[in-house]
């Protein structure tokens, strides 16, 4: 994006070119451009421009303070929240305390054994209404982690928001299909955990969105 600076015909115009990620959503790019332009105009009018610009933190705070969410950003966030609600309501979710109570010999500490499994990346959690939950499909009949879950998590890779992972598990995936006659029907990864090679391949080819 290129940002023109200058407020009148008496002021020389400068152009600042800022590179943004290729796949940055349009709404975010537009909002960021507007925020940067406002921030730079404020800096251009400031008598303490050089002192202010020397601080990266100050510059970041100034830009963020000028950014306002666009309609596209708000629509995307609303869609994401609707997807989260749908996945949670349609799923079977357990707390760490639930899983503790379901063990053959429950540890005295209610966070166990879940905290150990999380640390070893054998399972994943999501946060909903301020509490952590664990999907039932991650566990066997004795409420121990299925080995395939750790393999899937490794194939899927790091994700900043585990709701994207939960959504990936929940909805039908074109990489995993069952054939009914001449028709190929996509399956949700959570319903195909016995097909390890297919599910792991799907995890490696995942998409980076969780809007249903």
Would you summarize the structure shown here?
The protein has 212 residues and is α+β, with helices and mostly antiparallel strands. It is built from nine helices and seven strands.
List keywords for this structure.
single chain; two-stranded antiparallel sheet; 212 residues; 9 helices; 7 strands
Protein topology:
Blueprint: E1 2-5, E2 14-17, H1 26-45, H2 49-53, H3 56-66, H4 71-90, E3 93-94, H5 96-101, H6 114-119, E4 126-128, E5 131-135, H7 147-156, H8 162-170, E6 173-180, E7 183-187, H9 196-204
Antiparallel strand pairs: 1-2, 3-5, 4-5, 6-7
Verbal overview:
The chain is built from nine helices and seven strands, in the order E-E-H-H-H-H-E-H-H-E-E-H-H-E-E-H. It is of the alpha+beta class. It folds into two domains: 2-68, no CATH class; 89-204, no CATH class. A three-stranded antiparallel sheet has the order 3-5-4. The chain has a two-stranded antiparallel sheet with strand order 1-2. The chain has a two-stranded antiparallel ribbon with strand order 6-7. A hairpin with a 2-residue loop joins strand 4 and strand 5 (131-135). The longest helix has 20 residues, at 26-45. The protein is extended, with a radius of gyration of 24 Å. The model is unreliable at 5-9 (pLDDT under 50).
